[in-house]
Amino acid sequence: MSRIDVMRPFLGAEEIAAVTATLESGWLAQGPKVAEFEAAFAARMEAARAVAVSSCTTALHLALVVAGIGAGDDVVVPSLSFVATANAVRYVGARPVFADVDRLTGNVTADGVKRVLTPRTRAVIAVDQGGVPVDLTGIRAVCDPLDVVVIEDAACGAGSTHRGRPVGAAADIAAWSFHPRKILTTGEGGMITTANGEWADRARALREHGTSRSAADRHRVTLPAAESYTEVAWNYRMTDLQAAVGVAQLGRLDDIVARRRELAQRYRDALDGVAGLRCVADPDDGTSNAQSFWVEVSETAARSRDGYLEALAAEHVSARRGIMAIHRQPAYAGSDAVIGDLAVTEHLTDSTLILPLFHTMTEEQFERVVRTLLATS
Ligand SMILES: *Cc1c(COP(=O)(O)O)cnc(C)c1O
Fold it and tell me: Which domain holds residue 35?
């Protein structure tokens, strides 16, 4: 019996041809393919500007820097997220303040944000956890009157919608991931989208050592004018090899999301009547790309959450525990992060599991997962 992975990227001949063509072009680092990917991504996500970077983690870091967040500032983040969401806040010397999440969506809410605001709150990072769109509209209604910047961690969100638009489009600035665990992949990679031209320009410089003139621009002419380095910055560039894959992947987005939503609905049809199991679903005001399909296991279920994970592993099914709780990690013990009531976060991280779901999943694989979950002994 072959192992069923929790996720597999969906790649094909277009990606291979794109990498080959880029290798043959001789231009491997950030250049024309990165510019092409940025333009295509911005158009697809209804963003005015897109800036490609090396990961979503570096995108979040730069988002906070260009928004002017630093020491002495508080940033509201969910604890129920990948650790990078809160780490980015600490990179800039600001203080993470954890907000609890909604049990149905796993996302922070306007009320949850409001409960943890402090006089020092300067930004909120709202996450589309597992691809479920966060209520950006509600969160903006709380933040805008207070001049609190709304950053969307859309690492998992490509292809999800909120109120009929792509997630990310309603945020002040959004950060995206192209890690293979996400919907689109470039191996590693990330993107910043924003309508703010000054922020986008500064992010472009900051991803490239704070240069006044990009290396790609300098390469275009035989004798370039001297560049200067305006502030201490980083090398967070994406390569043209990655961007070539990204362009091809973006062309598959609608296909990938349709297939994932179809499989998610089939999981719900098979499991929703089962005692003690609740499957993640679309919220009222949006659609999920089903990046992570999670199931909440309650007391009335035939097995515990970990019992299901063991039963699945015995059938060579690689399911996963639910989203982590950042405040429980050793890196956050004794930190200045503000940890209040996170009861729902702790409940969800302890009681949910993520099922395998990927484009090329076969009938046999899907049936094996469902059969194992339905077996009561
Ligand atoms: C994966 C993920 C990240 C980090 O993305 P990288 O591209 O691997 O840096 C950040 N936030 C969330 C919510 C994620 O799921």
Answer: 13-252
User: Which residues sit with their C-beta closer than 6 Å to ligand 1?
Assistant: 55-57, 81-82, 84-85, 127, 153, 155-156, 177, 179, 190
Say if residue 59 is in the same domain as residue 204.
yes
- Residue 104 pLDDT exceeds 70: yes
Q: Is residue 104 part of a domain?
A: yes
Residue 226 has pLDDT above 90, yes or no: no
DSSP per residue, 205-265: HHTBTTBSS-HHHHHHSSSPPPP-B-S---B-PPPHHHHHHHHHHHTTHHHHHHHHHHHHH
Q: What pLDDT digit, counting tens, does each position of 195-223 carry?
A: 999 999 999 999 999 998 888 888 888 88
| Same domain for 222 and 89 | yes
Do residues 169 and 36 both lie within one domain? Answer: yes
Model confidence, pTM: 0.97
